[in-house]
Amino acid sequence: MPFKEIDVDAVYNKDPSLKKEDINNLKEWAEMQPHLPKMTELQLILFLQSCYYSNELAKTTIDIYFTVKTLCPDIFGNRTIRDPAVKLGAHTILTTILPKQTPGGDTVIFIKMMDSNPDNFNFAIQVRCFDMITLSHLHREGPANGITILLDMQGVVFGHFLKLSVVVMKKLLYYLQEGMPIRLKSLQYFNIPPFMDKILALMKPFMKKELYDAIQIHTTMESLYAQVPKDVLPQDYGGSCASLKSLHGTLKPPRWRQNAKGNF
Predict the structure, then answer these.
(1) Domain limits of the chain?
(2) How far lies 195's CA from each of 136, 156, 157, 158, 191, in Å?
(3) Fold (topology level) of 75-249
(4) Which residues form the CRAL-TRIO domain (predicted)?
């Protein structure tokens, strides 16, 4: 059974900067674009809010979003947890939205390798899982003030690095920066492997300076806590959130968007 989406009236009430008139204007534009699918009011809200209420920027982002989704079926196609590849991806890496926000009001997307066997790692599928989980959360909870992606690199071995496709990395970072309806504030890494410099070297050519500068590499937990307080984290790191095992066990239907035919 599909999850219940947030009521748009609740989103308007929560965000006084979000204007119904602006959404109506964006809707009129979208309906005149023959290459775009029919969009819901919530979808339009997510794009406009993520673009800081700029209609022109939202139009560009919508175009890029649907273009990327159409041209990259290897990453974004077959969006269902019933797909064996997606099931394996969800088993291999935990991707979850932590219940508590940072003091600055950012939503934290937490990512951790749960199965360190490189044979079970598929980069394109992991991107698909990340996208499905993040967008389903936005549909349930509404737009996020900001997004911090927090990655625990423990369990990542050199065999995983060897499976990082340059083509998939380029597509991911283009989508993340230009098409995904989120306000990405920072990328936080901890439990750093010795080849982290090689991962960053692979990413850097496809990143805008502002995002690359927002990457933070934490060599101590105290450094991490200064950006993401301990209380926000799972119990395994001394926080008040559920344990990693518990969080990993909750990533089952209906928490994911089930319908592969949906626009998101």
Answers:
(1) 8-72, 75-249
(2) 33, 10, 9, 7, 12
(3) Phosphatidylinositol Transfer Protein Sec14p (3.40.525)
(4) 143-245
Instruction: Name residues whose C-beta falls within 8 Å of residue 110's C-beta, 6 or more positions apart in sequence.
Output: 94, 95, 96, 97, 98, 150, 152, 233, 234, 247
Strands (E), the chain: 93-97, 107-113, 147-152, 184-190, 215-218
The rounded radius of gyration (Å) of the Cα atoms in the chain is 18
DSSP 62-76: HHHHHHHHHH-HHHH
Ordered per-residue pLDDT tens for the chain, 264 residues: 456 899 999 999 999 999 999 999 999 999 999 999 999 999 999 999 999 999 999 999 999 999 999 999 999 988 888 889 999 999 999 999 999 999 999 999 999 999 999 999 999 999 999 999 999 999 999 999 999 999 999 999 999 999 999 999 999 999 999 999 999 999 999 999 999 999 999 999 999 999 999 999 999 999 999 999 999 999 999 999 999 999 998 765 444 544 434 445
pTM: 0.93
**Structure token digits, residue 172:** 């991911």
99 Cβ contact list (under 8 Å, min separation 6): 241
Distance CA 178, CA 72 (A): 15
